């Protein structure tokens, strides 16, 4: 459903070049929940943002449902983006608009007629259990509720794919769990393929069918979470999986914290 | 007091002239300055339609007009005013120069307020496949609403004061009345009356502006 073919991203900061993502290939099957895990600066967000071309890859190709995004015109790309939902760590809702208007925005973007828009807005807020908050403004909601509005907005145009950039990183553990349950439900009921960036191993373990470990702009291993025992091969993968629960007291032979 | 009452009709006429000049220049600021402000925002480096040459030219033009002391602009634009409204004197002629000054003034304020819209919110709209027009109306202008109104308030108040200089080209207005009677003829009473009127107008504009801006702001 989502395919990265030798994509890379190089930024220029001042005189220096930064390889945020080195040439990377990744294929995400339809219906899967693919996690991307790694430390800060590993290039996770950059990779995710290339999936809908919010970041233009320096080289390589991106395919969504067989369509090559990297070759599209501006108009075609806009069209394609309507079937790619996205949610963010800081929700990114319109603060001067009500929850309903936030969801309606993307339906207007897809040029849905007014009558159908109203109906779809209600449906989407219903899915995330916030129908009664339709007339409220984001500032009147809790963080978890804001993220649910953002999920409703991302779902409105019946996307095939949902991109999530640290959607629970600003939330407490209980709220995190409720958001993860909504994401799971969306994946199950609407067969939405999810690509999720996180630095929390618990989030990846709870939700993902596959987890890619990312380090210094490259995917160093891809773990199949459906296996009875997940055996990471890289020091970073082992660190992430083995030290769960120990917090940062845990260390692992072979991983030099100084590297990060 | 009788003295002021005797000038009643002149004062009312002056208030009317001030209103004419301020309305015309502020209307120009909104209709022309706002689009220029949006253009500045969109074409700035790293923004949605980033275009260095266009940004440079627009930015340079805005700075150029803004760096003129208003009196000099007023005089320099006399031929231009004559071309546009057929005369170089009177409130209409002064409105031409005032508009020329108000357009870049508000354009910068619009650009500033648009920059305060969080990048992530714009990005979410881009990711949803919204058109540029939809993003400008539905995200930028909508999210920046309180700032745009505050900027407009600042513009109105500044141009009430700028319009006083319009007396130079016979523009009239309440500020001009204060200068003619109070400053040139040492008629303190009329000057004080004019200043009181200006103070009341400015307070009123500020109050309406602040009230509207806070009503439009849903962030808190
Ligand atoms: N617009 C940019 N300009 C220059 N460098 C950038 C830009 N965006 C990202 N980078 C660099 O690319 C690298 C990867 O950044 P990225 O945001 O993808 O990391 P991340 O894995 O998402 O980290 P985090 O967990 O902190 O969000 C970092 O070194 C970052 O400094
Ligand atoms: Mg990130």
UniProtKB/TrEMBL annotation, chain A:
Keywords: Amino-acid transport, ATP-binding, Cell membrane, Membrane, Nucleotide-binding, Translocase, Transport. SUPFAM superfamilies: P-loop containing nucleoside triphosphate hydrolases (SSF52540). This is ABC transporter domain-containing protein. It comes from Paenibacillus glycanilyticus. The lineage of its organism: Bacteria, Bacillati, Bacillota, Bacilli, Bacillales. Pfam families: ABC_tran (PF00005). Residues 2-241 form the ABC transporter domain. Transmembrane segments: none annotated. PANTHER family: AMINO ACID IMPORT ATP-BINDING PROTEIN, METHIONINE IMPORT ATP-BINDING PROTEIN METN.
TrEMBL record, chain B:
SUPFAM superfamilies: MetI-like. InterPro entries: AA_ABC_Transporter_Permease, MetI-like, MetI-like_sf. The chain crosses the membrane at residues 20-42, 54-78, 84-109, 121-140, 152-178, 190-209. It comes from the Bacteria. Keywords: Cell membrane, Membrane, Transmembrane, Transmembrane helix, Transport. It holds the Pfam family BPD_transp_1. Its main location: membrane. It is a multi-pass membrane protein. The keyword Amino-acid biosynthesis does not apply. It is found in: Cell membrane. Signal peptide: none annotated. Residues 15-209 form the ABC transmembrane type-1 domain. Belongs to the binding-protein-dependent transport system permease family. This is Metal ABC transporter permease. It comes from Paenibacillus glycanilyticus.
């Amino acid at each position: 459903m989502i395919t990265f073919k030798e994509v890379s991203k190089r930024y220029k900061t001042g005189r220096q070049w930064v390889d945020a993502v080195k040439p990377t290939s990744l294929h995400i099957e339809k219906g899967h929940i693919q996690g991307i895990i790694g430390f800060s600066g590993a290039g996770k967000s950059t990779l995710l943002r290339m999936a809908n071309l919010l970041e233009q890859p320096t080289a390589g190709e991106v395919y969504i449902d067989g369509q090559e995004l990297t070759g599209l015109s501006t108009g075609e790309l806009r069209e394609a983006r309507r079937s790619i939902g996205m949610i963010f760590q800081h929700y990114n809702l319109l603060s001067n608009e009500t929850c309903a208007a936030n969801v309606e925005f993307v339906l207007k973007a897809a040029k849905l007629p007014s009558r159908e828009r109203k109906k779809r807005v209600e449906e989407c807020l219903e899915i995330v259990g916030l129908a009664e908050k339709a007339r409220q403004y984001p500032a009147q909601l809790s963080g978890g509720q804001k993220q649910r509005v953002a999920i409703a907005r991302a779902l409105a145009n019946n996307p095939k794919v949902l991109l999530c950039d640290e959607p629970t990183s600003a939330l407490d553990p209980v709220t995190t769990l409720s958001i993860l349950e909504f994401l799971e439900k969306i994946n199950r009921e609407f067969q939405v393929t999810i690509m999720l960036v996180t630095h929390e191993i618990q989030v990846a373990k709870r939700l993902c069918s596959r987890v890619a470990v990312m380090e210094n702009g490259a995917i160093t291993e891809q773990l199949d979470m459906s296996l009875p025992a997940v055996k990471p091969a890289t020091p970073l993968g082992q660190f992430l999986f083995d030290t769960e629960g120990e917090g940062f007291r845990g260390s692992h032979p072979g991983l030099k914290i100084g590297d990060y | 007091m009788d003295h002021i009452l005797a000038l009643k009709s002149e004062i009312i006429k002056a208030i009317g002239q001030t209103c004419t000049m301020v309305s015309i220049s502020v209307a120009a600021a909104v209709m022309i300055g706002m689009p220029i402000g949006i253009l500045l925002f969109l074409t700035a480096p790293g923004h949605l339609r980033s275009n260095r040459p266009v940004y440079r030219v627009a930015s340079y033009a805005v700075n150029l007009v803004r760096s003129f002391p208003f009196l000099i602009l007023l005089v320099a634009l006399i031929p231009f005013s004559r071309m546009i409204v057929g005369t170089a004197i009177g409130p209409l002629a002064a409105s031409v120069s005032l508009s020329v000054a108000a357009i870049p003034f508000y354009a910068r304020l619009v650009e500033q307020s648009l920059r305060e819209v969080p990048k992530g919110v714009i990005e979410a709209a881009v990711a949803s496949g919204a058109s540029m027009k939809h993003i400008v109306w539905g995200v930028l202008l909508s999210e920046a609403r309180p700032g745009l109104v505050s900027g407009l308030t600042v513009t109105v108040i500044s141009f009430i004061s700028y319009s006083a200089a319009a007396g130079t080209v016979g523009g009239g207005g309440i500020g001009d009345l204060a200068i003619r009677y109070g400053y040139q003829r040492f008629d303190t009473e009329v000057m004080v009356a004019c200043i009181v009127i200006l103070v009341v107008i400015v307070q009123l504009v500020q109050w309406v502006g602040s009230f509207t801006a806070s009503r439009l702001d849903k962030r808190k």
